[in-house]
Amino acid sequence: MAVFAHWMRVVGEWIVRPFDYAGGLLGLTIFSVLSGIGMLWVMGKTTDQKGMEKAREQMAAATYEIRIFLDSPGRVLRAQLRLIRWNAHYVACLLPALLILMGPLLLLYMPLDARFGWEPIQPGQDTLIMVDFHEGTNGAKLEVDEEKCSGVQVTAPPLYVAEESRVYLRAKITDGQEHTLGVRLGEYRITKTVSGTNAAGFVSPERASGISHLWAIGLENPIAIESGIQEVEVQHQPRNLDIFGVPMPWWFYWLVVSLVAAFALRGPMGVVL
């Protein structure tokens, strides 16, 4: 399962990485437009297009009927029931496409979030680092591995909270580059990237083991399950894009641009939405 999670993450990274050459918001915009085209194509191939078109016509007819016959409660009620029924039919027609798209969208979300979703760590700023353990692992034995630490200064000793099966660390980086924190649990030595302001365009807030690696935010390799460590998380602050002076999360921008592209091209591609 861990190998499957790792290779799924690798595939997602291969898909997203070419857009890094355009850089920043331009790369995200191009990706979003192509996402909209891809989702539109899937919709056209996997949905009952005739059924969706009929549902839209029936919903429009029911809406007009409600407006025209407001003085006839019985007719308005029947029109409302038809509107609900055809709405349900429309959603049912969409379900196959939504189920097919759910996996790829989740897969692509993780590498995009590493690029656009989080602020890097400021040099000299105290940062909280959390280490979670698998069930049955004694996290009290976790130690900072000074030999594996590069540019990271641990400013408080590890604090183990048995009820949470978690160790808390406080650390800071010496400059804006990408640095490494090292921890040791028994014979296992685990490292975690800490991304500063001059890092290579993305941050890695999380590094996980097993199936958890599939949805961990970051680009690092999975942690060996045998180590007993489930996840190492660096607490980064959420980041918003500035779109014409309006702050918004990157995923909202992705969604809006994808939908605009899909609606703009539904006619030329012959897809009913």
Query: Strand arrangement, largest sheet?
Result: 3-4-1-8-7
User: Please, how many helices?
Assistant: 5
Helix content: 40-55%
Unreliable parts: none
Radius of gyration: 25 Å
How would a crystallographer describe the biggest sheet? 5 strands, antiparallel
Shape estimate = elongated
How far do the termini sit from each other?
Answer: 37 Å
- Share of residues in strands: 15-25%
What does this structure look like?
A hairpin with a 2-residue loop joins strand 9 and strand 10. The longest helix has 44 residues, at 73-116. The protein contains five helices and ten strands, in the order ααααββββββββββα. The strands form three sheets. The chain has a five-stranded antiparallel β-sheet with strand order 3-4-1-8-7, with no helix packed on it. The protein has a three-stranded antiparallel β-sheet with strand order 2-5-6, with no helix packed on it. The mean pLDDT is 89. The chain is α+β, with helices and mostly antiparallel strands and 273 residues long.
